[in-house]
Specification:
With 450 residues, this protein is an all-alpha fold. Helices cover 79% and strands 0% of the residues. Helix 2 packs parallel to helix 4 and helix 11 runs antiparallel to helix 12. The longest helix has 122 residues. The mean pLDDT is 78.
């Protein structure tokens, strides 16, 4: 600026010289050199009037008292005086005039009328431009008198975004946004924005902005530190509470774990007991079946035994009568033949075996079929044409009935003990199961007998 003044003097251009001095005086006001600025303005008033620079002259004067009011929290009468002078000197058709009118309305608490002028201009401005940022800042200021902090935050935020996009750091948008956030108890954002405002003011060496920011920075910083302290205390107590809960949780987990172990032990004990009960029940059921089978066998064979005995007694009576008659008739030769003959014995054995086969196969109709599953094809049994069993089948039938003594089997079948032993050994060796398990498997045939 001093160079511009020197150049204007060398070129002997009074208009440029006056403009340069006005720029210097504007700088004085931003640096807070109000007395120097006033003396300089008073000294160039005639030149400003002469060279048609009254609008710039009044603008600098208005700015001076605006900055002065920011330091003293009130508008001096001179501010309004030069504001009115600037309005009168400004062409009503210029782009600046609506701004000046809106500013005047806002300063005199006619906020709604000011917004009616500024909002159409804001909508018409290019999005993100410096002009739109300035309009947003002006609109935000109109809401101050109404204490509408939400709308202040909206438009000051738009202004700050525009300033950032246009690399403008000589601004008040961040400071105003910080104050609005502080009023709505958004301390963290307020501290962030006031810090940015102070940083930009220091970077640009704009003393007026530094003074403005420094008025609120301690207040917001104190609130921010108090909030941090509260959060720190809250986290501290929360950590203690979390620790206590964790201790109780661990105790609860240990208790639950022990209870689960006890429950598992009880369940295992119950399971073992249940298994034992099932085994006992199964044994009881099997025993009951065996008793039922034994009872049925006893009933069946006793009934048949009594029947056979009755028939045998009748046959003996007839036989005795026959022998007695032969003796009385002196038919000694016929008597001798009858006594010597085995026909009667053979017939009786045949009837006995036939009756045994009939009773056994009635009790165990699938005996032969099930028995053949234990033997290879070449050793499997078949009933005779008259549905009677072979001697080996009768031997196995007796084993199924629980008669396992070879001498008892041999006596019933009228075979030698050696023959019975050979039968049993051969079948055990030929069986499809282990030889020692063969006769046990035979005993299991027809567990659910008819």
């Amino acid at each position: 600026m001093y160079d511009n003044i020197c150049i204007a003097k060398e070129l002997n251009n009074p208009s440029w010289l006056t403009e340069s001095k006005l720029s210097l005086i504007r700088h004085y006001s931003t640096e807070g050199l109000y007395l120097d600025a006033v003396r300089a303005l008073d000294s160039i008033r005639p030149q400003a009037y002469k060279h048609g620079l009254l609008t710039s002259y009044y603008s600098v004067y208005k700015q001076l008292y605006l900055f002065y009011s920011a330091s003293n929290d009130f508008f001096p009468p001179e501010y309004f005086l030069y504001q009115d002078s600037l309005l009168m000197a400004t062409d009503k058709n210029s782009n600046v005039y609506p701004f000046l009118v809106a500013e005047k309305l806002s300063d005199t608490e006619h906020s709604k009328e000011a917004r009616d002028i500024l909002l159409p201009l804001f909508d018409a401005a290019e999005e993100g431009s410096h002009l739109q940022a300035m309009l947003a800042n002006s609109i935000g200021r109109t809401y101050r008198g109404e204490n509408n902090y939400e709308m202040q935050k909206k438009y000051f935020a738009l202004s700050a975004i525009g300033d950032v996009k246009n690399a403008v750091r000589e601004h008040e948008s961040f400071r105003s946004l910080a104050i609005a956030c502080y009023q709505t108890n958004d301390i963290e954002r307020a501290y962030k924005y006031i810090s940015q405002s102070m940083e930009d003011a220091i970077f640009t060496n704009f003393n007026m902005r530094m003074i403005e920011a420094s008025q609120f920075f301690p207040i917001i910083e104190k609130s921010y530190q108090q909030k941090l302290e509260k959060e720190k205390n809250r986290f501290f107590y929360l950590a203690i509470l979390t620790g206590v809960i964790a201790v109780f949780l661990i105790i609860g987990i240990i208790y639950i774990y022990r209870q689960m172990n006890k429950l598992a032990a009880i369940r295992k004990s119950l399971s073992d007991t249940n298994a034992q009960l099932n085994q006992i029940n199964e044994e009881a059921v099997n025993m009951n079946r065996e008793l039922s089978e034994s009872n049925l066998l006893k009933e069946t064979y006793i009934t048949q035994f009594l029947h056979v005995c009755s028939l045998y007694v009748k046959k003996m009576e007839k036989y005795q009568s026959l022998l007695n008659k032969k003796a009385m008739d002196r038919q000694l030769e016929d008597l001798y033949k009858i006594l010597k003959s085995r026909d009667m014995i053979d017939n009786e054995l045949k009837e006995l075996y036939g009756l045994f086969d009939k009773i056994f196969l009635n009790l165990y109709p699938n005996f032969v079929e099930e028995l053949n599953k234990l033997l290879p094809d070449e050793e499997q049994f078949k009933l005779k044409k008259d549905d009677s069993m072979t001697a080996e089948l009768r031997m196995l039938a007796l084993i199924r009935l629980g008669i396992t003594d070879s001498s008892a089997i041999a006596e019933f079948l009228h075979y030698s003990i050696k023959t019975i032993y050979n039968y049993r050994t051969r079948l055990r060796n030929k069986a499809l199961v282990r030889s020692e398990d063969f006769e046990n498997e035979v005993k299991k045939i027809g567990k659910h007998f008819n």
